Amino acid sequence: xxxRRLEGKSIKQITQCSxxxxxxxxxxxxxxxxxxxxxxxxxxxxxxGMFSRLLPIIRKEFIHIIxxxxxxxxxxxxxxxxxxxxxxxxTSDVRNTPMAVQDQSRTPQSRHLxxxxxxxxxxxxxxxxxxxxxxxxxxxxxxxADLNGGRGAQVAFVLDGSDPTVxxxxxxxxxxxxxxxxxxxxxxxxxxxxxxxxxxxxxxxRPRVWYNPDMASAVFMVPAxxxxxxxxxxxxxxxxxIVRERERGTIEQLIVTPIRPLELIxxxxxxxxxxxxxxxxxxxxxxxxxFGVAIKGSILLLLGIACLFLISSLSLGLLISTVAQTxxxxxxxxxxxxxxxxxxxxxxxPIAALPRVLQVISGLVPLSxxxxxxxxxxxxxxxxxxxxxxxxxxxxxxxxxxxLAATRFRKRLD
Length: 414
Hints:
Elements lengths: L1 H4 L5 H5 L2 H12 L1 H8 L4 H25 L1 H21 L7 E7 L4 H12 L3 E4 L8 E5 L3 H6 L7 E4 L4 H29 L24 H23 L1 H8 L2 H5 L5 H31 L7 H25 L3 H18 L11 H7 L3 H15 L7 H26 L1
Parallel strand pairs: 1-2, 1-3
Antiparallel strand pairs: 3-4
């Protein structure tokens, strides 16, 4: 049956596939020696046969990659654009929150309070009161008189709670600034009265922040962007691999070769794994230079575990390629897998904050394990003992996805 499929094809169409050409040349000129070598029972002969079947596939994929320089350029430029855009946009830092001020007191004390808010960097004062502003401060007319008389002065804040993230940050910042300002005013009043007694709080809490003293969101988000971008690029690179062969009519040429489904999957993964590894190094360098995120752990360990993660992502792309009928369908299925990876991996929301059902589902997302690895190595500088379970999970995901892709491809052939 396989021979009949190729009867109507021209010699030029058959030989345009480098894999098929290599095998036709081998059977035409190698004849009995090739047959004896591939049918030998020795283990070393079997390994040589496997590598001799893998190398043409790898060579063919490299030819496809190099033959299209535009696509090759997009492979390396697109991750940079994603890193720059998401690195600056995907941040949890709330700065320069618009604040409308209604200063009814118009005294030096009220102006000093307004300056305390603006100098913190958390608020930007707008003199015109409008309902579009997220925060409004109303200073009563008797503000200065209450302070000078030793009475407690009150300042009203009207918050716009439509955006809970901004409202919660503005509320906590306003309360903290108000407490600091109240303490300073009390100390100034005691100093004017000639009292040198220091105000000591009943409980002195002295926080100490490790790993990220400035609590900059870039330190937390940039390593996560590395994992997200790698998954997107790796899955997209291989999602159209089998579909492209089917659309070009070269899938039958692969069928008539002695290559096995698992060897075909490996041969298509390895070239793209090398490209994805180069993209990993590129993102690490740009993330370090542009955002100042220093890698505190072992770079070799990070690259080694990144290879495990890339194998699972590339295998997922090949699995999608065996399911999809067209390249457009493959791309749509790829983006369908990216959505749970963004929301269930801990990229934006902590996994511990998710409902119990979603926490269980997040255990099926390889990115959730790799984010723990990349954040642990980059931010904390941890080693293999602290990442044993994540390494085991990524290894299991890679092996399972490769077997599923090979099995699915075998069923499609049958």
